[in-house]
Specification:
With 282 residues, this protein is α+β, with helices and mostly antiparallel strands. It folds into three domains: 64 residues, no CATH class; 104 residues, Gnk2 domain, C-X8-C-X2-C motif (Killer Toxin P4, Chain A, 2-Layer Sandwich); 100 residues, 2-Layer Sandwich (Killer Toxin P4, Chain A), CATH 3.30.430.20. The protein has six helices and ten strands. The structure holds 2-acetamido-2-deoxy-beta-D-glucopyranose (NAG). The site of 2-acetamido-2-deoxy-beta-D-glucopyranose has 6 residues, from loops. It is found in: Cell junction, Plasmodesma; Cell membrane. It is a single-pass type I membrane protein. This is Cysteine-rich repeat secretory protein like.
């Protein structure tokens, strides 16, 4: 009897490579929101450049096990010191957080070529580095403001929007979600802020969202260290459970895991059968 194992193992390999094909391309948490860069540039092949490389590597590695982290890379001279951090959105699972941070880190070379400081915000994560310390420093500068088209003066819808924003403002913790009817909201601080700094930042973002976005169907207010967003009527989707593509990728992943489990069971079964028949055949 020909051994059944090699074809099964190559099927397993095939399925595994399929799963790695499906996984990275689907989550919408990787789409780009904004990038900001410092005016000053570092010289190519400088110690600063290699420190930046090791900083970004540390950030990507850390994102496989933590939703937030900060690092300081000490140079041999004071001007080579570099500070950096990342923050994943509160609802992102660990593999998606790592994928998001890796994706934004890979965009620095294009968005901020050789600049001594830079920040990139994707839907699911924020990454920033600089040669002056910004860690633990509250920054309420508006970096991205987007208001959707107006829905006209709809008292009821605006009342729900204000209630959702109000409940997020009154909540505690660095990641806040709210919802009422067709209105959804999300707000988050970067993890280096203290509780009171975070509250201060979110109050500003939420206040600006109300005043600047008026009766818009959705609003995005990103400040230096926090953001608040809302949407009505599915104008925007924020949380990963609402992203249809993400749901699909999780389904695909579940199917692949199921197939893998089936194949593993089959291998165990066939090995068992082979042992029995192999033993009898002697
Ligand atoms: C940051 O880097 C720029 C460009 O190399 C340099 O001009 C500036 O002095 C640096 N700032 C600090 C605090 O080292």
């Amino acid at each position: 009897m020909a051994t059944p194992l090699p074809p099964l193992l190559s099927l397993l390999t095939l399925l595994l490579s399929f799963s790695s094909l499906f996984r990275p391309s689907l989550p919408s948490s990787d789409s780009f929101l904004y990038g900001g860069c410092s005016q000053t540039k570092y010289p190519p092949n400088s110690p600063y450049e290699s420190n930046l490389d090791s900083l970004l590597t540390s950030l990507v590695n850390s994102a496989t096990y933590s939703a937030y982290n900060k690092y300081t890379v000490m140079g041999s001279s004071p001007q080579d010191v570099i500070y950096g951090l990342y923050q994943c959105r509160g609802d992102l699972a660990m593999p998606d957080c790592a994928t998001c941070v890796a994706r934004s880190v890979s965009q620095f070379g294009v968005v901020c070529p050789q600049t001594s400081g830079g920040a990139i915000q994707l839907q699911g994560c924020f990454v920033k580095y600089d040669n002056t310390s910004f860690l633990g420093v509250l920054d309420k500068t508006v970096v991205l403001k987007k208001c959707g088209p107006s829905i006209g003066y709809n008292v009821e819808a605006m009342g729900r929007r204000d209630a959702v924003l109000g409940s997020m403002g009154g909540a505690s913790g660095p990641y806040r979600v709210g919802g009422s009817g067709d209105v959804q909201g999300v707000a988050q601080c970067v993890g280096d802020l203290s509780m009171s700094q975070c509250q201060d930042c979110l109050a500003e973002a939420i206040g600006r969202l109300k005043s600047d976005c008026g009766t818009a169907v959705y609003g995005d207010m990103f400040l230096g260290k926090c953001y608040a967003r809302y949407s009505t009527n599915g104008a925007h989707v924020y949380s990963k459970s609402d992203g249809p593509s993400h749901g699909d990728s999780e389904k695909t992943f579940a199917i692949i895991i199921g197939l893998l489990a089936g194949v593993a069971l089959l291998i165990i079964f066939l090995t068992f059968i082979r042992k029995i028949f192999g033993g009898n055949g002697k």
